[in-house]
Amino acid sequence: MNQTLEQLLNRRSIRNFTGESVKEDDLTLILKAAQQAPTSINGQQISLVVTRDKAKIKKIAEIAGGQPQVATADVFVTVVIDYNRADAAMKHAGQEMVISKSAEGIVVGSVDAGIAVNALQTAAESLGYGTTVIGGIRANPNAMIELLELPENTYPALGSTIGVIDTKIASAVKPRVPIESYAMYEKYDTQKVASGVLQYDTELRSWWDSIGLSDMPSYTAQTAQFYSNIYFPEVAKTLLSQGFKFSDEI
Fold first, then answer.
1. What average pLDDT does range 189-198 have in this prediction?
2. Sign, CA torsion 124/129/130/136
């Protein structure tokens, strides 16, 4: 197995950091790797806001629900859906930018944000740093918008911590649903997905118990805990206030 595959197959979220600084040269490389990720039509409708100020990082941790892995990170990178850049390009071309007011615009921005954060984390982990994706910033999008001074036609989609891993605290690779219920050949198989859910529910329960976290919920219990309600209720309202609207809805 080559080094790249080994890294990807052993990816895990790191929530404990030493407090040491991420080297500036390393951070520059990480950001460049994220920038090189593909975007739809090469629109480059993603921007990164890099936070190193400790007081601001603690504020982001509060916004995200008081997450300690955010508060103790050396760097927090917010991945921003950015049609403000497209708007500048459209003005130069003498046309009006409307993509942010469509369902496709939201999908494109979200997809590209996910691609960017994956590239960023892969780069950071290749240099020995730990990361965790943080979607909790959408619990209070207005606070993030104000903190980062985001203009109209931009939105804080998600973020990532970066820090030096505290190796004294063990971390393990969390199992996933069975591969045959995840990667399906030729057509979607509802039965495989359903049976995979039940198998994974048992496997994850055993995994939690094996690392001494018996109080953690099973897969089905955790999914039900979040997906039985709209757990970030401010997203739609703040999207509208930032200039995003489904004007193409039927």
1. 97
2. negative
Domain ranges of the chain: 3-169, 173-229
pLDDT of 170? 75
According to the model, what pLDDT value does residue 35 have? 98
Which of 26, 6, 214 is closest to 120 using CA atoms?
26
The CB density around residue 7, as the number of other CB atoms within 10 Å, is 12
d(CA 245, CA 243): 6
Q: Which of 106, 107, 86 is nearest to 96 (CA)?
A: 86
Beta strands in 39-173 (DSSP E): 46-51, 75-82, 129-134, 154-164
The predicted pLDDT at position 171 comes to 83
Structure tokens at 240: 């509208």
pLDDT digits (tens, 9 = 90+) for 141-182: 999 999 999 999 999 999 999 999 998 887 889 999 999 999
Pick the CATH number of 3-169 from 2.60.120.10, 1.10.3470.10, 3.40.109.10, 3.40.50.1000: 3.40.109.10
